[in-house]
Amino acid sequence: MSSSENPSVLHSVADMLSKQVTKDRLLRAMVDRVVEELDAERGTLYLIDAITGELTSRVAHLPELKEIRLPPGQGVAGHVAETGKSVVVPDASSDSHFFPGIDKATGYKTRNMLVVPIRDDEDAIRGVLQVLNRKQGNFTDQDKLLLDSLADQVAQALELTSLRPIGDRARGVLVDGPFNNIIGECRLMTDLYDRILAAATTDVTVLIRGDSGTGKTLVARAIHDNSERHDGPMVHVDCTTLPAGLIESELFGHERGAFTGADRRVQGKFELADGGTLFLDEIGDLPLPLQGKLLRFLQEHAFERLGGRQTIKTDVRVVSATNANLEEKVAQGLFRQDLYYRLRVLELTVPPLKDRGPKDIERLAEHFLDQYARRHRRKARRLSREALARLVTHDWPGNVRELEHCIQSAVVLSKGTTIDQDQLSLPGTAGSSPAKSGYLPGTPLAEVERDHIQRTVESCGGNRTEAARKLGIGRNTLARKLK
Ligand SMILES: Nc1ncnc2c1ncn2[C@@H]1O[C@H](COP(=O)(O)OP(=O)(O)OP(=O)(O)O)[C@@H](O)[C@H]1O
Ligand SMILES: [Mg+2]
């Protein structure tokens, strides 16, 4: 498809693809690159809305218009979307497909244009890429070849975002949510998107709440990746897995000689995150003595390294997350109330999957199906009606993570193009691990325990923290038993 000797669009957006930047910013970066490469004045990237068939401009160099919507077939772009053939238009005003309405609305004068389809690997048309007004002379056939190959790269980039086809529909993409890889369009999620974007425009301290596996880490990334700090580091600290004796040094660093074995000065996460975001995951597990030090940091942006006297100031935005009931911890004296208020200047709640409605479950399932079929090179393309029905009635205690694992394992085991109900390893379906709920008397205890632990971990979508909590044992104990 794309030729490697050509200037690359993909290369210039590669680092964005792995981030939760907004789709608009990602597409914009690609169009900017294309316009520069073609020496044009302006460019537009249209996506075909898989549901309505309309062309919607996702990015246009049109300060005058926020969005353009073209009904199927209208304009040169609409024509290209229908025929799938690239066209060079040397003189727009005399071209029979040219739609003068947009110039009329914007006051911009289109002299000439070059318009090509965006096709995926399977030759399905996803959108249209156009450039307007070559700065010198007219667009050539050479330019056409170049734009065709850049459009292939745009298609490859789209595959890595949530702008994807619906099921196995041949045309268009599902335009869903503002972020690169966060799926969901229920009300709870669109409200969350608004709050993420609001959080991204300020430096206030954010607390993300939500059950295990709902997407809190993803939300934290979306905040960082869309904030002014996006070029700075995002440093992730999981307060649960840090060994108690090391947390302070991990977070705040230490001086040489601060404790036995401290043979050199080490920077902590608050220094490493300078200019960026520090993401404190499972903040409810931060030991009390350190809560005071964190509170001081939030108030003064200052701290001292362990064993040090010098006060260090860093420019760090703090985002924290928890699935614990912090109010309860405050009431029990395990969490400082003043810190609790400081952390939740802005609070975002990620909803449990079962509250998000069948549509979101379906979209997520299709998204994971698509993604894992590609990754594991499987033919699976769709879910059977029964499989889907099963997915939307399950209550997903492990939330999106559980759904992701469920689809991934079904995809790996799949042979044909359709995934059926019995390929889903959910309780109550044929593919699930044998439900040995009634153990026979005399079954060795170790066996019962092993089975019980395994099934609990599975029901938590593989999340050990959650499983340990349910089993009433510590994470370390669980890890040992799993070995
Ligand atoms: N809305 C979503 N769209 C697409 N993928 C999602 C979405 N929400 C979660 N995921 C995926 O589900 C998995 C779990 O998400 P994530 O790790 O962000 O959850 P979490 O709330 O941080 O869980 P934990 O409490 O265990 O830390 C990840 O692989 C993530 O990419
Ligand atoms: Mg997480």
Question: How does the SSE layout of this entry go?
Answer:
Elements (H helix, E strand, L loop, with lengths): L8 H9 L5 H16 L1 E9 L6 E6 L8 E2 L4 H9 L3 E3 L11 H6 L6 E7 L5 E10 L6 H19 L27 H14 L5 E4 L6 H10 L8 E5 L8 H6 L16 H4 L4 E5 L6 H13 L1 E3 L6 E3 L3 E6 L3 H6 L5 H7 L2 E4 L7 H19 L6 E2 L1 H9 L5 H15 L4 E2 L25 H15 L4 H8 L3 H8 L1
Parallel strand pairs: 7-12, 7-13, 8-9, 9-12, 14-15
Antiparallel strand pairs: 1-2, 1-6, 2-3, 4-5, 5-6, 10-11
The protein binds adenosine-5'-triphosphate and magnesium ion.
Kindly describe this structure.
This protein has 483 residues and is of the alpha/beta class. It has four domains: 151 residues, GAF domain (Beta-Lactamase), CATH 3.30.450; 163 residues, P-loop containing nucleotide triphosphate hydrolases (Rossmann fold, 3-Layer(aba) Sandwich), CATH 3.40.50.300; 71 residues, Helicase, Ruva Protein, domain 3; 38 residues, Homeodomain-like (Arc Repressor Mutant, subunit A). Helix content is 40%, strand content 15%. It contains 18 helices and 15 strands. Strand 1 and strand 2 form a beta hairpin. The longest helix is centred in the N-terminal third of the chain and has 19 residues. The radius of gyration is 26 Å and the shape is globular. The site of magnesium ion has 3 residues, from helix 7.
